Amino acid sequence: MRKIHTFLWGFVCLLLLQSPAMADTKSSVSRPSDDTNIIIRSEETIFTVNSLKSGTTRYKVSITILNNNGNHRAKQYVHYDKLSKVGYIKGVSYDRSGNKIKTLKNKDVTDVSAISDFSLYEDNRVKIADLTHTVYPYTVEFEYEVTFENLLFYPIFHPQDEERLTVEKASFEVQMPLGMKLRYLESNVPQPAKKTATATHEVYTWQVQNLKPVETEPFGPGLEELVPIVRTAPTDFEVEGYKGNMESWKSYGLWIDQLNKGRDVLPEATKQKLVELTSKAKTQEEKVRIVYDYLQGKTRYVSIQLGIGGWQPFEASFVDSKGYGDCKALTNYTQAMLKAVGINSYQALIRAGDGEPDIRTNFPSSQFNHVVLSVPMAKDTLWLECTSQTEAAGYAGSSTGGRHALLITPEGGKLVKTPNYKATDNAQIRQIKVTLDEKGSGSASVTTRYTGLQQESHANAVQNMQPDEQRKWLYQQVKIPAFEIEKYAFVQQKDKLPAVTEQLELSLRQCATISGKRMFVSPNLMSKWTYVPNQKEKRLTDVVRRMAFLDVDTVEFQLPAGYAVEYLPQEVVHKSVFGEYKASVKVDGQRVVYLRSMQMGKGRYSPESYTQLVTFLNNVIKSDSEKVVFVKNIP
């Protein structure tokens, strides 16, 4: 859903995120502290709503760039499409003394397609104004105007949109026609909106100044939680003749449902084929899987969108005949096919992406970038990613799992949660058998079963890499100092909780260290923990862990004859609010068995708990580094 991809993305980028604006002063530059790459000298955004469907944004900014880490702000990106028009772009740059370097000319502005690699055709384009310079510091000023014939979304005021950025002053003004209601959500703003009025408009103004650079902390919340942001949205709106209301999730869902009506009609031949394919299915879930397999074998993801087509899907009959569509069209097609075999389902808007924050559930607005299908079952719900030709039916994963989605029903929109994957779902269960020789080298047979989120990278290797690429990838993944891959194999299991089993036959070089008559063996062969964030004198923000997991290793070493144990690490257990770690080693003659398990949860914890996290991880690293010492019996 590429223009449901641009609900959030395009408009925010257009107005604020990429923005470096015309300042009235051209003074020389004073250098701030070393933690700053960029200084916003002044920024001004004025958004004027003219009607339900039309408006104008005027934007000005003056930015001082202190080093090459700030050079990206010397380029101004202005997005537009069939429903928007760029009136003008102006720009000028100055050196550190305030002397003019250059004035933006037409040749400095490129106009390129903003379509993605997977898109066949879209109307999204971007103008890029470039005032990059090579001597620091320097200042760039940009000014532009864009008019819109689509007010599905209003701008976001986000002046401090990256780390190591100082804001001297920034303002945001929204002008609403009298009688039209502005909805907004303020976060971390020093002062609430100032409200005034003219003869024709109500005016809302926000201002910030002297914002010092912000830096996110390890395992901390994202930048959006830490800086001033004002989100705005319409109450009533219109896109190419389709009027809607966004005051509630229910009303917004009704608008999407209006766009979908009548677009689920399939040819009779296709419906009959689907009935035949599912005739022997014993359960409703089996029917769903058969239809989903049919979808994956017949279609591919291609985005073709113009105007309202950014939000309205192609008819199911179009996808059926052409074999392609975007996320809206493929989801609509799948919904129509399930309907043909007697199964009810709902399209669901979602904010997809690994690491993407959840939507603001208390602020109904266009916060989504994707569409999936929700299929209620007797005991559970199956979530279908209809753009994938390889994903398992029912698996939401890192892209769409553990967040809110907006179900689109005839009664309106309804917020629901997608599956949340716990530690035992995201497992890595490994068994290793190692045979060592007199020199400390040897061979290893490794079987690892990955499930849930931990199988995703391996599933990608199975589905998208050639054998030579897979082998190179494995050399990067296997954490053993010196080894050769003799053989490898993958077995993929597609299910609601998918799994990949990886089998390796390895040749090991100096797996154990020989010193005189002693042999030093590190029993943790492949799962050593290595990362500990820096300890801080005072933690400022909550500790956020975004993924739960469980790792279990069983490693069996077969030693050459004649060695006896001299030192054996004690069994250890480390516990904290974040998780639990256990490790033990047992020796039986020439056989050494190492057991290790590490489980960590997902959640949000107080800043004071950060010290416990650092201590816990340091203890894990210490335990993972333990060695067993053997001594050779010399007759």
UniProtKB/TrEMBL annotation:
Domain DUF3857: 54-214
UniProt entry keywords in alphabetical sequence: Signal
Matches recorded under InterPro entries: DUF3857, Papain-like_cys_pep_sf, Transglutaminase-like
Transglutaminase-like domain ranges (all copies): 275-345
Source organism superkingdom: Bacteria
Pfam family, one: Transglut_core
Alphabetized Gene3D superfamilies for the sequence: 2.60.120.1130, 2.60.40.3140, 3.10.620.30
Secretion signal, residue range per the UniProt entry: 1-23
Name of this protein: DUF3857 domain-containing protein
